[in-house]
Design brief:
By secondary structure, the chain is an alpha+beta fold. The chain has helices at residues 12-28, 40-45, 69-75; strands at 2-7, 32-37, 53-56, 59-63. The chain has a four-stranded mixed β-sheet. The protein starts with a strand and ends with a helix.
């Protein structure tokens, strides 16, 4: 199971990123553990300065803007 964290303070792009990750995982039948991180010091601890950020299994794979569907499919 992949551990996915979406970093963001609750903006529309953050919500859209979560919805996209959930939709792609459901479509591909991939089990994920999805967590939303809204705490600013916790976000900065990942070195992410632009949100939303996406962390998969402890590695930052995206920061700033909603990732494309093809990018999310590649992660999963």
């Amino acid at each position: 199971m992949k551990s996915i964290k979406v970093l963001g303070t609750g903006c529309a792009n953050c919500r859209n990123t979560i919805a996209l990750v959930e939709a792609v995982a459901r479509e591909k039948g991939v089990a994920i553990s999805l967590e939303k991180i809204e705490d600013l010091p916790a976000i900065m601890a990942y070195g992410v300065m632009s949100t939303p950020g996406v962390v998969i299994d402890g590695t930052v794979v995206h920061a700033g803007g909603v990732p494309t569907r093809s990018k999310v499919e590649g992660w999963l």
